[in-house]
Amino acid sequence: MSKIALVDDDRNILTSVSITLEAEGFEVETYNDGQQALDAFNKKLPDMAVLDIKMPRMDGMDLLQRLRQKTSMPVIFLTSKDDEIDEVLGLRMGADDYVKKPFSQRLLVERIRALLRRQEAVDGEIVGDTEDTKIMERGELTMDPLRHSVSWKGQDVTLTVTEFLLLQALAQRPGFVKSRDQLMDVAYDDQVYVDDRTIDSHIKRLRKKMRSVDRDFSAIETLYGIGYRYNEE
Length: 233
Known about the structure:
Strand content: 15-25%
Distance between the termini: 42 Å
Oligomer: single chain
Radius of gyration: 18 Å
Shape: globular
């Protein structure tokens, strides 16, 4: 049974979403603000967190930043209806997905399930002797899908599930171009729609993390109007 943490200062949302998720077979923990959630996460992490952005004491952005210092667990942001800036910032900081308020609880459940399926695949719970599960080495890059580990020039890099899947898809075929649509298919469930900006934000975040261990990292090339390509260095 997967444990989902809901963090929102709206008690109505906490109550209604909790009832829905528990009916779907999830174990649910609820928190009224980011600080309360962080205190609990420091003791034991859930399998996934659904975070509101605007909260008292500690907002969702601050909480995500602290979480990404120690974990790559899936995170979904709840954003205001027209607040595109929050969406982009959240993705750049390492959120895996976002849902706009007011939202369909069925849509939220589907996105949670999609992220958990991806996490299970990355963690190796869905194991098979395939290209997606073998250790991959591409020049200075080493990726171990079963351990969700990435290193560049011998230095570990911590990636979210989405970032890992995007890098894996690009690095599997160096020199070949992947369109944004192809990358969407790799990183997201068929029932979840995201736009080009979402993929671009994840790629920017991925590059930033790789450059944190090597400021000259340039293996991921942008082909404007086409997509992205991994060039083996």
